Amino acid sequence: MNASGISGSEEDVREILKREVRKYVSDVKVDKLGNLIAHKKGKAPKIMLAAHMDEIGLIIKSIDQKGRIYFSSLGGIEPLTLLGQRVHVLKKNGFINGFITLNEISNDALMNRLPEMTDLFIDTGLDKAELEKAGVEIGSNISLGFRHNFNLGKKDIIAGKALDDRIGCYILTELIKKSHKFKSEVFFVFTVQEEIGLYGAKTSAYEINPDYAIVAEATSSDDMKPEPTISIGKGPCLTIKDAESVSDKKLNKWIKEVAKQKSIAIQYDINDIGTTDAMTISISKGGVPAAVISVAIRNIHSAMGIAHAEDIRNAILLFEELLKKPINY
Q1: Domains annotated on the chain, with CATH
Q2: Would you give the distance in Å from CA 139 to the centre of its chain?
Q3: What is the DSSP string of 42-80?
Q4: Residue 24, exposed/middle/buried by CB under 10 A (0-12, 13-18, 19+)?
Q5: Which of 10, 194, 217, 320 is catalytic?
Q6: Active site residue 130
Q7: pLDDT tens across 258-316, in order?
């Protein structure tokens, strides 16, 4: 999770994953867009599992003479969640620490509204000339959050940056290590550029043309509300629908049956905001049945997310049982 993998710049994450998985599968390759595809040979059905490597972040739009860095978002970020956040302004060899602050409020109209992205800037303590000398330029990426992860008050409550979707990448990695147990042909795809348009899933699904696909994702927990619908610590989530797609009913029925057989508690995710790689996979070529299994995260799409380790373990167990006894579609 500590590696930077902002959309379009997933190289560091990809190299870590490649080193981790290459000895467990038939072959590993990187396609032209940057997806990492680990292929486990086997018999029908041909299954695609996907998780995206990229995380939300920022990109430098301009730098004024005083060194104030103005930025644009890569992925969906609420400006209010950025105010006061520590960031890493990335350069060729390392990063420069900075924090996000607010332009001075100079009139009453600004006092009565939430900050917008254009109101914010990054202060590194350096002026424009010093930043340029350090290798910071327009187009440089900015990584959110602290580069460490930690447990909160309970042992299994974890916090860290980029849980969306490094949790999914971890799930796929653990499944690859168990892939000798699976008889089917499986393509484990670590996709790029999900946060800005689902692009990696689109190209990889077209190339693989699977019989069906399941996406390992993160979803938003609302368990701090009085009447939550999704909570951390209550099991992996099965997506019914999101803002742009409806999950395949046959796959969802199978997933529910396996979860019940193995006494794995699951939650049902019906969301009106956002979508996942499953959407673009499902409309690849002549169509691909697709489903989504997610882990709930508090504060999703912010600098620091919170998840429950037991949900991750149960998601891995559920995927493992599905791959041991796949359905033919």
Answers
A1: 11-55+161-324 (3.40.630.10), 57-144 (2.40.30.40)
A2: 22
A3: -EEEEEEEEEE--B-EEEEEEE-TT-PEEEEEES---HH
A4: middle
A5: 194
A6: no
A7: 999 999 999 999 999 999 999 999 999 999 999 999 999 999 998 889 999 999 999 99
